[in-house]
Amino acid sequence: MREFFSRLLLFACCLLMPVANGAELTPTDRAVTDLLRRSVPALRDAAVLKRLPVDNNLDLVLAIGWPWKVELFANGEVPWSPQDRIGLFLQDRTDSGRLFRLAVEPGPMQDSFLRVERMTAGELVLSCVGEKWSTYDNQKFLIDIHARSVVKHFSYAPFRVNRVLQSPRGPRFVMTDQKRSLLIESDSETGVPRVVSAFQPPATPSAPVTWFGPGKRFRLSQEKNTYGSDFPVIIERRGQQEKSFLLPQSDLETWREARPDDAESGIAPNAAEMNEQIGPHQLEGDRLWFGKSFYNSEGLTGVGGFGYFDAAARSWKIYSPPEIQRWSVSAILVEPDAIWLALHRRGEYGNSSGGLLRWDRRTEQVEVLDRKLSADHIARCGDALCMGADGFLVLKDQQLRSYFLDQTSDGRYQMALRE
After folding, report:
1. Which of 29, 102, 229, 358 has CB 3.0 to 4.6 Å from 25, enough for a Cys bridge?
2. Distance (Å, rounded) from C-alpha 355 to C-alpha 334?
3. Domains of the chain (ranges plus CATH)?
């Protein structure tokens, strides 16, 4: 239960407007939640999550109920454990008491949370995450509005992007559910992603960074820290000898100035331990660009930043604008005019997204494009920016669209717009 209440506290910290539940329900919504609670008498609190007009008279309504009082915040995820129930209903817009029950279902696992991936007149898709961001099967409901019923309910494993491959047609994203992998590419004109084919991963994945720099003497390698865990270092080889270049760590004074959020959270300054590491990276000539990554919990901390190791000069250059100091970098894209950075916070109970930044290489100014998206990979797809994590994001013409890999009732896979 500790994880459950920790996640609720995380919702409250988002400082977003709460979803209507309890006393805040409108009479129209209350008619729905009252029916859900009559269907499952153990429910003590309920909320309407989403409402969608599906014809001239009817709304499709998704509600949820719990056996205790729950405060919800509209960051997209909602507690849904086996003792809880979602309810899917049709409601007459001119007579709120005229309701049709389509489905009432329990959550998949204890302390799980749902997110509405897609809700249309014909289908509802819910994703589920659990303790420390474990994932459960997506739940899909196929709806026949005219028959006023759910005609099929099935589940399937969620996919996420785990690598990007370059091809003559542009970047291709590999999405996997740990059993099967599919290649995804984005249309060069519209940016809309599609499934290309199945993908068979190589038995031995190629290293993301090979030898680089003058004489090809430098490479990214791993060494052991004091806890026995691997951490990345730059290695220079000269004949039979090797020299390690460790990423410089922020000192405590820098940390106190850059991270008042952390310094005031109860960590004693002399107990704060920097664990800044080379995170996502990309080669550009003799320079290895990277984003800093650090675990930010249980006394471990860091100051966010990005930069490069210059193999020709055998030196580090680190940038740490205020917009990034609280965050680790989860993905990086180096382009001639800009550095793109996706951010997240690595905590004890999972990662929380920090959005997307663009750093202008000429002016060294930061543009914050989004504070909610999560991405583990970034690639240029024509005039669009494509990003991957638990879905596929496309930034084109200053508009951000989000997709996920969906399964049809006959077992085929397709990219679907989140809506």
Report:
1. 29
2. 17
3. 2-156 (no CATH), 160-417 (2.130.10)
